[in-house]
Queue: 2 jobs
Job 1
Amino acid sequence: MKEQSEKLFRAIGDVGDDLIARADAPVRKAPRVWVKWAALAACCALVIGAAAFVVPMFRAGSSGLSKAAPPAEAVTMEAPAEEKMTLETAEAPAEAMPEAAPAEPAEQKTRTLPGADCFAVVPESVTRTAADVTLTNEDGAVLALRSEYWLETQADGDWQPLTSNLLKAQSQTDEAAPEPSVCTLHYDWQPLYGELTPGEYRLAQPVILPDGSEYTLYAEFTIE
Amino acid sequence: MEDSAIIDLYWAREERALSETDTKYGGYCRSIAHNILKNREDSEECVSDTWLHAWNAMPPQRPSILSSFLGRITRNLSFDRCRRQNAEKRGGGTLPLALDELSECVAAPGRVEQALEAQELAEAIDRFLRTLPERECSIFLRRYWYVDSVQDIAARYALRENTAKSILFRTREKLRRYLAGEGIIV
């Protein structure tokens, strides 16, 4: 038996050089099991954390896109809401909002529409060529005015824009109304429309809401 | 110095080949000799004899892996010296234990399988080792080629000693079955 063991020992001595060299190479120590699990857990935490950060950004981004280019249905749903916000329904602004809310519940979260009475003509300032309008900003919801505005008149129960030879650039252009929050804007439409004839009118003023979306304020007045 | 340059020195019969070999592979060969002999003087003599054998072998040989070539010479010389010492009752150390372990791989007497020449047996073992995972193969060779102690193997591979023993036991058992399956007796 001893001779056989020695024979085996000698035979092992003649195995391939590559195996012998490999057995003498520095050992690559396998990472401990807990290290592997810890690394895996860290990776999972990173992915979850990144997802928690990125997904809300995607949602916010996609809702912003839908506002910028709303589908046809959204436009038609929003139009009546805008009408409700005119001075025509100023007596019941509280009812107007809940009507718009079910149509676009997601949008309501990010878009706070100004109240109908926040944009109103000062009656004693009205002339045939000009009027003063007060703009009331709610706390933390400062509106920015677009440069253009237009006048509409009532015909057959509908509001129709007055025809104009010019596109008016108003002096208070694209600037946020100052806080606190009530300011008076002077509109001189003579270059646009000349002298108005007696009748019911309303002044349409596009604004930019605090969330970046656009909206149109209306203020009605009467020319005697 | 690169191995090929050292081999060129042997082929050019330049004695600097011996000093260069000792510089690069002296420690490697001494550790193999010491694992088997467990004696510093004997190990040193075996290493010196290794350089002499290498000088006589090159040329004509041109080994592809110089370290394995030299280590094999040292191992054989050390083994022969150990056998002589055991015959004179001077021996001891790791080798007898390793040989005892290897006896588990030997077929029982009286079997009728083919008895192989040493070279054929080496080729069969080589084939067997190439079927093993790299780590098992290397652990086996650390024990039965380099004659490392089980403690050293456990430390080298960051294993518990019992785990190293267990791996060696399973590998010996595999070798026994492999040789039996090939119809080989030792």
Job 2
Amino acid sequence: MPGKIKKQFLASIGRDNPVFVQVLGICSTLAVTNVLENTVVMCLGLIFATACSSFTVSLLRRQIPGSIRMMVETLIIAAYVIIVDLVIQATLPTISRQLGPYVGLIITNCIVMGRAEAYALNNPPLPSLIDGVAAGVGYSYILMIIAFFRELTGSATIWGHAVPGFSSWWVNWSIMVMAPGAFFALAGLIWIIKTYIVTDETGGK
Amino acid sequence: MEAFTGLTAIFFAAIFTNNILLTNYLGMCSFLGVSREVKTSIGLGAAVVFTMAFTSALNWLVYYYVLIPMHLGHFRFIVFIIVIAAFVQVVEMIIERVSEPLYNALGIFLPLITVNCAILGVCLFMLIRDYTFAESFIYGFGSGIGWMLAILAMAGIRQNMKRSKVPKGLEGPGITLIIAGIMALAFMGFSGMINI
């Protein structure tokens, strides 16, 4: 079993990574990658939602009628996203205001739905839970890399703090914290990864 | 008159300065997936404009007349998703009965729209900005047009790029994202014209 878990994680982080192989689910989260702190909160919420909804869908997989399964999956996901939203509102009110509608938009994030549809419907609950966490982590670390560089180059800070020996002379690339920066950063990362790390063209669509 | 200028401002702001796709990154999945050809983009774009305008109005009514009086505001995510899915389903059935050519043009795109994050995004933005009913409708309509504009421009560019040589690692999504970034830069030129 531990070997299998490791394999699932490695696959999500590398070859099957949802972000750069399929470019799925970037909508709701690209918007929050201009500050690292918001991204981490958002990613934790996403991992929680993916893992729990995969687990629940898998538990109910024999009861869900095939014809309305998408609707049922969406409702399960929405229920968990509401939990995430309420927790963030209660514990981190400032971040909740900055994130705005994007927490709610985890519902329509293709990755959550994709894992439920592709894996949880055909597998027992525990592996589905692990698969959900793995997909969430594989997605989150890409976004954290993007957020790290966007915040570093755009505001010369990390986690809201100045970086010693860097912030004093760095001229902020303000474009990086605005909308186009996210597109360029993601494109650049995909370019680097596809050229040097995952070179074979298999799962791409 | 004042109300009219307010609505016009929201309409144009939704298209240009606050383009739902290029400044809020919503609807990226179908934007990247369906923007290969102009013809399909028009179909999807039209379906988005239609759905966005009417679901934002519908969700406004549901939120302020059903959820708020019943103190169920926190369930808005679930309710909005259901309203959107139901609306799309009903529209699909009506179009199928009423007009076959229209159904053939839009039919395959309607189910795709239920999971388009831009639709839900518009509904959530209109709550955050405290829009009135008319403003919500106009905002939804404008955002739809803005989304359609972006996907059409992208499809046009991608059709002309078919023969261009792109670095291997950038093929597909990579280059599309770079184009989207440049488009977002161009749209930034509009910022400051209208504030909402």
